[in-house]
Design goal:
Elements lengths: L1 H21 L2 E4 L4 E9 L3 E12 L2 E8 L11 E4 L5 E8 L5 H7 L4 E7 L6 E10 L5 E3 L4 E3 L4 E3 L12 E8 L2 E11 L2 E11 L5 E12 L5 E10 L28 E5 L2 E5 L4 E3 L3 E22 L11 E6 L2 E7 L12 E8 L5 E9 L7 E8 L3 E14 L2 E12 L5 E8 L3 E7 L4 E2 L4 E8 L4 E11 L1
Parallel strand pairs: 1-4, 2-16, 14-23, 20-28
Antiparallel strand pairs: 2-3, 3-13, 4-12, 5-13, 6-12, 7-8, 7-11, 8-9, 9-10, 14-15, 15-20, 16-18, 16-19, 17-18, 20-22, 21-26, 22-25, 23-24, 26-27, 27-32, 28-31, 29-32, 30-31
Length: 468
């Protein structure tokens, strides 16, 4: 009984394979697309959905869907009939593309025709030869000899069925005869996007105009004409193949005029949709308008940050002519702001005395929800300097030290500035003396806001007691 069942199953499989081999092939190309939609994620991933109109015969047929992405993930591909159900029997993704080398490889063990031209008369002579190997060049067996290299033009009888001139998804199916729309969807790599922002500061530096662009790059191996485009901001979990374990290695020390994208929440992500269809050509980078906000209030901050090792011993001078970092702080709320901002790079420009915009710095922002703050580090202040000195060090007990510091801030600008001095302290600490009232920002950080007059200087002195 078992042998009989196994024989029947084997015969059925063989019959199905034979039917698949003899099924006619219908080729569908990009011109058959009636609609295309592309959703691009941050992590080199995109969902492609397209509707094609195809004409199918009755019975089993192999539908060859050309012009799909070369980085298509075949396990995610789904084909379904929109008006009529389709019975899908087999699916293949042919990405072994036609080249002279590949064609020759497919003919190993098969016969080809070699055409040679006489060097003086130009007369052509044809010989049959069998391809023995192609490693490092062709090896051909003629009737009376074996030759290597390419002794002439090689003529092939045809192109093998599994060798395509472009990536093709081949589906063996059964359905009703006639013209009908089908919908194909799949995930592919090679499509990615990022947000880029341009901020133009006003003359007084108290506001800015912010324009956001989506920079979209397509290296998927296919183009998408007049596609409906959507972008997903956020980190989508993906199952990845286990990687071999490796030993850890130490780390090395213009204004937008186009229609903006509409955004909406998508579970715990944000979806940006563009109303106007766009064509995304293969091997192309393009930009689309994301947002445009004018006269956004901005606050400038100068930050002089210390280090916790200052409190572990005697040091004396801890730095001369130190430069505070320059930050811009923007509230993502109200007016034309107050919307989720995808991660990207913000490039900031300021006007010089002639009104020309000059680049003054850039910083990367993470995905920022509405009503959150954007804090952009532009660089270091040129006209503001600081000297930091340890003025006293006293060991009170085996695990308790008391140490004092003097920080002198100088301002060469024509206006007063406020510098935020931020000190990280280790262990269990307290400030036992200070010339200005500080703020405990966290369990590790204390900060002072020091006002430095125009063309003048200001001094901050404090004593910290640290218990280890």
């Amino acid at each position: 009984m078992t042998r009989t069942l196994l024989f029947l199953v084997t015969a059925a499989v063989a019959a199905a394979a034979a039917a698949a081999d003899t099924a006619p092939e219908i080729v569908s190309v990009a011109a058959d697309r009636e609609a295309t939609a592309v959703t691009v994620y941050n992590d080199d991933l995109a969902l492609v959905k397209e509707r094609r109109r195809v004409t199918l015969p009755a019975g089993q047929v192999r539908l060859a869907l050309r012009d799909v992405a070369a980085q298509l993930r075949p396990e995610t591909a789904l084909l379904r009939g929109q008006d009529r159900p389709l019975a899908l029997l087999e699916q293949n993704f042919d990405f072994d593309l036609l080249t002279p080398e590949k064609l020759l490889e497919k003919y190993v063990g098969r016969e080809v025709t070699v055409i040679r031209s006489h060097p003086t008369t130009g007369e052509e002579r044809r010989e049959k030869a069998t391809v023995l190997a192609t490693n490092g060049g062709p090896v051909l067996r003629f009737a009376d000899r074996i030759e290597t290299g390419a002794p002439g033009r090689i003529v092939f009888d045809g192109v093998p069925a599994n060798l395509r001139d472009r990536p093709t998804l081949s589906v063996l199916l059964s359905g009703r005869a006639g013209a009908q729309p089908v919908e194909l969807s799949y995930l592919t790599g090679g499509l990615s996007w990022q947000a880029d922002y341009v901020a133009n500061l006003s003359g007084d530096g108290r506001s800015l105009d912010l324009n956001g662009w989506v920079t979209l790059t397509n290296r998927s191996g296919a183009g998408y004409e007049a596609a409906t485009l959507q972008l997903v901001a956020g980190t989508v979990n993906r199952v990845r193949a286990p990687q071999p374990r490796m030993l850890a290695r130490p780390a090395a020390a213009p204004k937008a005029m186009a229609m903006e994208a509409a955004q909406e929440a998508l579970m715990d992500y944000h979806l940006y949709s563009f109303e106007r269809p766009t064509t995304i050509a293969d091997n192309q980078t393009k930009q689309l308008a994301l947002l445009s906000a004018g006269n956004v209030p901005v606050r400038r901050e100068y930050l002089l940050a210390g280090a916790d090792y200052y409190y572990q011993g005697r040091y004396g001078e801890l730095g001369r002519r130190l430069k505070p970092a320059v930050f811009l702080e923007v509230e993502n709320r109200g007016g034309q702001m107050g919307r989720p901002l995808p991660a990207g790079v913000v490039r900031v420009y300021a006007k010089d005395s002639r009104g020309a915009a000059q680049f003054v710095g850039e910083d990367r922002i993470e995905h920022t929800a509405k009503n959150e703050k954007l804090k952009l580090r532009l660089g270091e202040a040129f006209d503001i300097t600081a000297d930091r000195k340890q003025t006293a060090y006293r060991k009170i007990a085996d695990n308790v030290v008391e140490t004092a510091y003097r920080i002198e801030l100088r301002n060469a600008k024509d206006e007063a500035v406020t510098v935020r001095v931020q000190e990280p302290l280790p262990g269990d600490w307290e400030i036992v003396q200070e010339s200005l009232k500080g703020t405990r920002e966290s369990a590790r950080i204390v900060a002072w806001d020091v006002t430095v007059p125009a063309g003048g200087a200001a001094v901050l002195e404090y004593t910290a007691r640290v218990r280890w």
